[in-house]
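>> received
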Amino acid sequence: MGYSITAPIKSQKAKREMFGFLTENFVPFNELLPKAYDGFCHMRGPLDEDFSYDRGKCRIGFDYSVLQDLERSYANGLLCWIALRVGRKRKLPVFGRFSDIKAVIPYTVYDGYEACPVRLASEWKDKAPPKVRWEFRDEHGFSVPQKRMLFFASVSHGRLVFKDYRTIWNELKRLSKLWDEGH
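>> returned
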C-alpha cells in the first residue's frame, strides 16, 4: 500500500475499546457503496498495528493506495470521527503558517509524520484566516466543505455522487449514535 493515515489514541484502553467497537460496527467501503466500488482494494483497515508507513504507538488507521474521492472521504471522515472520540490531543498550529493560533486539538497523522489538526467547524470556522480554503469537520468527522456535495450534484468517475456523500455522512452519524449509546 502507498500511504498510511492514522489517529493517535489517548490510551491503550481507549484503543482496545475503539478497535473492538470498529470490529463490530465498521462497514467496509465496498459494502457501504457497492456501486461506487471499482473492484480494487485501495484501503486496508481499520488496523491497530502493522501500518506500511507509520511506526507510532497506540494508533488506529488505514493503509491505502491512490483512493478515489469517495473512498478517501470515507477513510478520512472515519479517522476524524475516531480522533474526536478517543484521539490523543496535542498543541498544534491550528491553521499552520497562516496564523499564530495554537491549541490543544485532536489530530490525525499522514504517513507517520505529518500531524493534521481536526478542526471542528463549530469551534474554528469563525477564527480561520481568510483567502485559504480550510477543511473543517462536523461533530461526526464529516468534512464540512463536502457537505455542499450533499445538496449539489458532483461527478466522480463519471457518476453523480451527491447521494454517495450523503451515505458516508449517514454512516458516520450511525457510528456516532452507536458510540454515544454505548458510552
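>> The longest strand covers residues 102-110.
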